[in-house]
Amino acid sequence: MYLLDTASETPLHIQLYEALKHDIMTTLAVGSKLPSIRKIAQEYRISKNTVESAYNQLYAEGYIESRPKSGYYITEANYQPFVMPEPRAKNNNPTTPYLYDFFPARQAKSSFPLKLWKRLFTKAIDETLDLGGYSDGQGEYGLRVEIARYLTLSRGVVCDSSQIVISGAFIDSMNILADLLRDTHPRFAIENPGYAVPRTVFERFGYDISLIAVDENGLCIEELIRSQANAVYITPHQVSLCLSRTV
Q1: Which of 11, 50, 56, 216 is the least buried, fewest Cβ under 10 Å from its Cβ?
Q2: Kind and range of the H or E element at 16?
């Protein structure tokens, strides 16, 4: 017998649900049949909708199952409350102070012109921007136009916006290139020692990788020719690195 308080602030279907759930967890056996909705409604003088709401919640949580033309039966509910693990303390401060950070994917915070960026951003943003829509997959058209113009004026590169692809980061660019060149340029060469990120990306796309040595002049051209690679990744600073190792 369940005690349902009509004067309580807790709705009747929640009271019935909690009482039934308690019995299922502590008393009733797996496979036992629950009383019909009509019987519960008549016995406690409540609406069938109230009973049905309680049963639906038990069903949604896996405590009971509905068998066609038979009724509701108790299932094996292996319910255990989720316990949030204790957060592990993370020490973001290095134990040893360093004068220089040689991590290749980070620049000094002071090198970014934040004030200029904020001023230009405020000037450029207006109601014509659709920040909730999907942009061009090749990159914003206006930005590609300006990049093409800059390359022509400052680098002498004759190109237009259709030849420029803007990606979110360096790895995104490498993924795009690796996907584009995979069928036509399957043999990939990279300096050794060299930057590990592009090598990892091209390996993941199934390229045949050749590691090419570097000397005081940079990439060894003879070794590159012997590798028969048809795509090569080089870094402009390798010559200076080689010179520094020989000094």
Answers
A1: 216
A2: helix 12-26
Distance of CA 20 to the CA centre of its chain: 41
**If we measure between CA atoms, which residue out of 49, 32, 30, 29 comes closest to residue 40?**
49
Local structure of 213: helix, strand or coil? strand
Angle at 139 between CA 138 and CA 143, to 5 degrees: 135
Between helix 170-181 and helix 196-204 the angle, nearest 10°, is 40
Query: What does residue 167 show for φ and ψ, rounded to 5 degrees?
Result: -120, 170
- Phi–psi pair at 232, nearest 5 degrees: -140, 140
Q: How far apart are CA 112 and CA 122, in angstroms?
A: 17
Strands 218-219 and 71-74: unpaired
Among 179, 190, 200, smallest CA distance to 231 is for 190
Local structure of 133: helix, strand or coil: coil
d(CA 198, CA 178): 9
Identify which of 194, 190, 139, 137 has the alpha carbon closest to the alpha carbon of residue 161: 139
pLDDT tens-place values along the chain, 247 residues long: 788 888 888 888 999 999 998 888 888 888 889 999 999 999 888 999 999 999 999 998 888 998 888 899 988 765 555 677 777 766 666 567 777 777 766 777 888 899 998 998 888 787 777 777 777 888 888 889 999 999 999 888 889 999 998 888 888 889 988 998 888 999 999 998 888 889 999 999 999 999 999 888 888 999 999 999 999 998 865 544 443 343 3
Contacts of residue 213, defined as CB under 8 A and 6 or more positions apart, other chains included, come to 191, 192, 220, 223
| Structure tokens given for 77 | 């509910």
